[in-house]
Specification:
Helices cover 78% and strands 0% of the residues. It is mostly helical. It has 2 domains: 83 residues, Rna Polymerase Sigma Factor, Chain: A; 85 residues, Orthogonal Bundle (Arc Repressor Mutant, subunit A). It starts with a helix and ends in a 9-residue tail after the last helix.
Length: 196
């Protein structure tokens, strides 16, 4: 990292809003072009870039950057763009599969999913209290690991351990699940950058 970038990064880590805003204004257009190259949609590209900058701002104290700041953000934007492409592809595929189902199969499938959802929620309620809290904050409220750690006063590693334990415990329900949708809901964490 160059001395200038090092200075900017330290300012961002110290929550210097003005330095962060200036860095954003100086760089977001070039990152927007990177995202657009993958997404071919200006709205989605802007959303990806903004998401990456928000995450960088919120998690700056916990992120270690080995390369340059711009290289790190470039990689983060690419990774997040690829996640969006993959999600869009899966959504289209699921919609096509659903549309190809015979009409008389749709209602039984929905009933089966509702029954399995009940089993799943029952299993969640049986998790140890802290494990259940972490899981619900992550999967139902969409909070990031570092946000959960801060809210509950525990380490990010402990949050990861609780999530792994919860998913392992819920795996017996998931193996019966015929719909991939709930599996994605429970296991698909957004990989936005090498930091994870």
């Amino acid at each position: 990292m160059s001395p200038d970038e090092e200075k900017v990064w330290q300012s961002i880590q110290q929550k210097d809003r003005q330095a962060f805003q200036q860095f954003y204004l100086d760089n977001y257009r070039s990152f927007l072009l990177v995202a657009y190259k993958y997404l071919r949609d200006q709205g989605k590209a802007l959303e990806v870039v903004n998401d990456v900058f928000v995450i960088i701002w919120e998690a700056a104290e916990t992120i270690t950057i080995q390369t340059s700041l711009r290289s790190y953000l470039h990689r983060a934007v690419i990774n997040r763009s690829l996640n969006v492409v993959l999600k869009d592809k899966k959504d289209k595929q699921r919609l096509q599969e659903f549309n190809q189902l015979p009409q008389d199969l749709i209602e039984p499938r929905e009933m089966e999913e509702n029954e399995l959802k009940l089993k799943l929620y029952k299993e969640i309620d049986q998790l140890p209290e802290q494990c259940k809290k972490v899981f619900k904050l992550s999967r139902f409220e969409g909070k990031k690991k570092h946000e959960i750690a801060e809210e509950l006063g525990i380490s990010v590693k402990t949050v990861k351990n609780h999530l792994n334990r919860a998913l392992k415990s819920l795996n017996k329900v998931l193996t019966d699940w015929k719909s991939i949708q709930i599996f994605i809901l429970l296991t698909n964490c957004c990989v936005f950058c090498p930091h994870g």
